[in-house]
Design a protein that fits this description.
Layout lengths: L1 E14 L11 E7 L8 E9 L2 H8 L12 E6 L19 E2 L3 E7 L42 E3 L2 E2 L21 E7 L6 E4 L1 H8 L9 E5 L1 H4 L7 E7 L10 E6 L16 E6 L1 E2 L2 E2 L7 E5 L12 E2 L1 E4 L2 E6 L9 E8 L2 E2 L2 E2 L3 E7 L18 E6 L5 E4 L3 E10 L11 E10 L2 E10 L1 E3 L2 E7 L6 E11 L2 E14 L3
Parallel strand pairs: 5-12, 26-33
Antiparallel strand pairs: 1-3, 1-13, 2-3, 2-12, 3-11, 4-10, 4-13, 6-9, 6-11, 7-8, 14-20, 15-16, 17-18, 17-21, 19-20, 21-24, 22-23, 25-27, 27-31, 28-29, 28-32, 30-31, 32-33
Length: 485
């Protein structure tokens, strides 16, 4: 499994019945209720838009492919500003706002004008920072009433409905008309926001949802319309203008795992074989999915394994799953013939590969005692220790796994995982959870795409499972991602 991050290209918090703009504020302040002079009265709503350019490119070039298994998941993630310290629970902010608990937030589409897909309500982020004009200094640049705000989406364009929708269902565009993408319940108020947007994003990618202009997050109308409150109830998230690592994002998780059994093909077990296609050393996608025929040691095609449909695992990599083979004397040499190979409308010759079927016993061990867990050593290539990498690079990181204290005894089939994280003091902030290393006939490797990573110092841990024991090797690789100037 791999992860791609898509980030916001604009965001803003709009305040009930106010022309205040807070587009540059590093904190999203969602609140409801009433307060004192310095606390805005009413409630607020957050709007944002996503830059899906790189995600669409990865789908176009086959890096993200759904032909093997369609399990791509898109999740909106925003970090709660109170998530780092439980001491913030049931306290007030510096502006005397109570930290909200026991509430729901909803995620909704910014609607079209007159319900017409050809009339999107385009909007601008704005240049404001402060939620109220508390600085009477002339020329204060932190407070702005330029759009977007509660009333205006652009300088000469208003929202069809003030605040985008009416929460009492008495306006031009009402809450009952909203397309709700998802919701989340917050028990304590310090939870991070995690809402599934898979159906929504897939609709954009397949063209069934055209001209999106963004989404909004708000409290339910029942909370927005509460009266009689003597204070405001608040929840905060980091916005796209945060100076921390916690920039909000859309996380896309997709399955591009390669587990090639060509060198470890075993009788009586399901195995996978792959075809890797290159042009001038770079992965290239074929026009159509290849067909695969498996032939036995006599060259005779095996019934049921003729012209099998392959699938595309990722850019330039095609996969076929072979069901368990039984009844053959092993070891023996079989062939896999890949046909229907077309590139740029040219038909290319079939590709014939060989693989050795090994007896099932080769992967089994029997005895009267338990095995001692193995200790492993690792070598790497593709990223140097403490290297500074531009955030325009895509690196293939090769991992050589061998028995510890040996120089050349490499292991052909090991259950090995990696994870990626950054450090904030003593806290490890996860970037990618434990993920299996890709395994090919000649190497283990992972692909690290820096283009969707925030500049920071990164660490990679490795984990190997052996004899029921899980061994984690900490901070095996350390490197920095830096901005390209």
């Amino acid at each position: 499994m791999s992860i791609h991050n898509s980030y916001f290209n604009r965001n803003n918090t709009i305040v009930f019945s106010a022309d205040t703009n807070t587009g540059r504020n590093p904190i999203v302040e969602l609140y409801y209720g009433n307060g004192g002079v310095k606390i805005p009265v009413g409630y607020s709503r957050f709007i944002f838009d996503l830059d899906l350019t790189e995600l669409k490119q990865k789908i176009s070039d086959g890096t993200i492919s759904k032909t093997c298994i369609d399990n791509v998941k898109h999740t909106l993630r925003m970090i709660n500003t109170s998530s780092f310290n439980r001491d913030f629970l049931n306290t007030k902010t510096s502006e005397e706002k109570e930290r909200a608990t026991s509430f729901d937030l909803i995620l909704w589409r910014i609607p079209y004008e007159d319900y017409n897909q050809t009339l999107p309500q385009n909007w601008d982020e704005g240049v404001g920072y402060d939620f109220s004009d508390v600085d009477s200094t002339p020329g204060d640049r932190n407070y702005s009433i330029r759009p977007s705000n509660w009333f205006q989406r652009e300088t000469i364009s208003k929202w069809e409905q003030d605040g985008i929708y009416n929460n009492e269902n008495t306006g031009i565009f009402n809450f009952s008309d909203l397309y709700i993408v998802g919701s989340q319940h917050f028990e304590f108020g310090n939870e991070d926001l995690e809402i599934d947007m898979t159906s929504e994003i897939e609709a954009i990618l397949d063209g069934s949802f055209e001209n999106p202009v963004g989404w909004g997050i708000s409290f339910l109308p029942q909370l927005e319309n509460l009266t009689g409150n003597t204070t405001s109830y608040y929840v905060g998230f980091f916005s796209r203008h945060t100076q921390t690592f916690y920039e909000p994002r859309l996380e896309t998780v997709y399955d591009d795992l390669i587990q090639d059994d060509r060198n470890t093909f075993s009788l009586g077990k399901t195995n996978k074989l792959y075809l890797y296609t290159y042009e001038d050393g770079n992965f290239v996608n074929l026009d159509d999915l290849p067909l695969v025929t498996i032939a036995d040691q006599t060259g005779t095609p095996i019934p049921g394994l003729i012209n099998l449909q392959s699938c595309q695992r990722t850019n330039g990599v095609y996969e076929i799953t072979i069901p368990a083979l039984l009844g053959y004397h092993t070891p023996c040499i079989f062939t896999d013939t890949w046909s229907n190979i077309k590139l740029n409308n040219f038909s290319l010759p079939n590709v014939v590969n060989e693989f050795v079927i090994k007896p099932l016993q080769s992967s089994l061990q029997f005895g009267t005692t338990t095995n001692d867990p193995s200790i492993y050593g690792f070598d790497f290539f593709g990223i140097k220790q403490d290297e500074k990498i531009l955030n325009t690079d895509v690196r293939k990181v090769g991992v050589i796994i061998k028995k510890a204290y040996t120089k050349n005894q490499q292991l052909p089939k090991v259950e090995a995982y990696y994870r990626v994280y950054v450090r904030e003091g003593q806290t490890e902030v996860q970037v990618q959870d434990w993920t299996m290393l890709n395994r090919t006939p000649n190497e283990y490797y992972l692909i690290f795409d820096t283009r969707d990573k925030i500049p920071n110092e990164y660490y990679i841990d490795l984990k190997v499972i052996s004899s029921g024991e899980v061994n984690t090797y900490k901070r095996t690789i350390k490197f920095q991602i830096v901005n390209k100037k």
